[in-house]
Design a protein that fits this description.
This protein is of the alpha+beta class and 284 residues long. The chain has 5 helices and 16 strands. The strands form 3 sheets. A 6-stranded antiparallel β-sheet has the order 6-5-16-13-8-9, covered by helices on one side. The protein has a 6-stranded antiparallel β-sheet with strand order 12-11-10-7-14-15, with no helix packed on it. Keywords: ATP-binding, Cytoplasm, Kinase, NAD, NADP, Nucleotide-binding, Transferase.
């Protein structure tokens, strides 16, 4: 990283065991280096981030904590060092015992930043924008109940993608391709690629299959006007917005990217092997 680090935010998920202990350990090291540490703790429902500026943010938790950190820090251009205290660790790839070594390499400028595509979604109702948010993993338009089919019309700015009768639709980034999208049959995409994966959820058709479209193509999802089932917009599994019949959800690339430290391609493919039992060989 360029320039001296003066102020670092620590985003601490209190639901994770040892998170507070690790936070104190990091704060002690930063204090010796005369770097101001600003701890921010939450217990499941993150609130407002303390006011900046920040030169760096530590994420102490699992992948969900990184998703929250990315939505808060990416618009500010603040890199994130994600320390994994969860179970999966696709995004939070730094083990707790490795943080000091990674941080030292970061100070020397020998750790690259992984630039990750993010998405923005706008909800339009009666010609007016009523909600907007950004995400690192995915945008999901789905039924609010179990086993209730909804009807969606999906198109790009210049192309028509089709009509879907399904439990919903996922628009995932490459980072989110290993989350809900892969469970719905979507492809795994290298996290630094520029693409959006469109995956129907349990489509009522044998011909509806996931599609990969360019990241620069805006995706427009229209909720059928005579929809009877309740419909929800969910982003990163953390932001939930009720939708009404006739609403339009416009999805496009965000004007900023998440900057993740020590989350390179080698780590990504290693996690595919260890967590998803993917062989990557001739017997895959």
């Amino acid at each position: 990283m360029q320039g001296k680090l003066r102020r670092i935010l620590l985003i601490v998920n209190l639901h994770k065991e040892h998170a507070l202990r690790l936070c104190r350990e990091i704060c002690a090291v930063l204090e010796k280096m005369e770097i101001e540490a600003v701890p921010f703790t939450f217990d499941g429902k993150p609130g407002a981030i303390p006011p900046g500026p920040f030169d760096l943010a530590f994420s102490l938790g699992g992948d969900g904590t990184v998703l929250y950190a990315a939505r808060a820090m990416a618009p500010l251009g603040v890199p994130i060092l994600p320390i994994n205290l969860g179970t999966l660790g696709f995004i939070a790839a730094v083990h707790p015992e490795e943080w000091n070594s990674v941080f030292e390499h970061l100070l020397r400028g020998s750790v690259p930043l992984s630039q990750r595509l993010m998405l923005e979604a706008w909800v339009e109702r009666d010609g007016k924008s009523v909600a907007t948010a950004s995400c690192l993993n995915d945008v999901v338009v789905s039924s609010s109940g179990i086993a209730k089919i909804i009807r969606l019309h999906v198109k790009g700015e210049k192309i028509r993608l089709g009509n879907y009768r399904s439990d919903g639709l996922i628009a995932a980034t490459p980072t989110g391709s290993t989350a809900y999208s892969v469970a719905a049959g979507g492809p795994i995409v290298d996290p630094e690629m520029e693409a959006v994966i469109i995956s129907p959820i349990c489509p009522f058709s044998l011909s509806n299959r996931p599609m990969v479209v360019p990241a620069d193509e805006a995706i427009i999802v229209e909720v059928e006007a005579e929809q009877r089932s309740e419909v929800l917009l969910t982003m990163d599994g953390q932001i939930v917005e009720p939708l009404e019949p006739g609403d339009t959800v416009r999805i496009s690339r965000a004007p900023f990217k998440a900057q993740l430290i020590a989350s390179d391609r080698e780590v990504f493919y290693r996690v595919l092997h260890s967590k998803l039992n993917w062989s990557g060989g001739p017997d895959a």
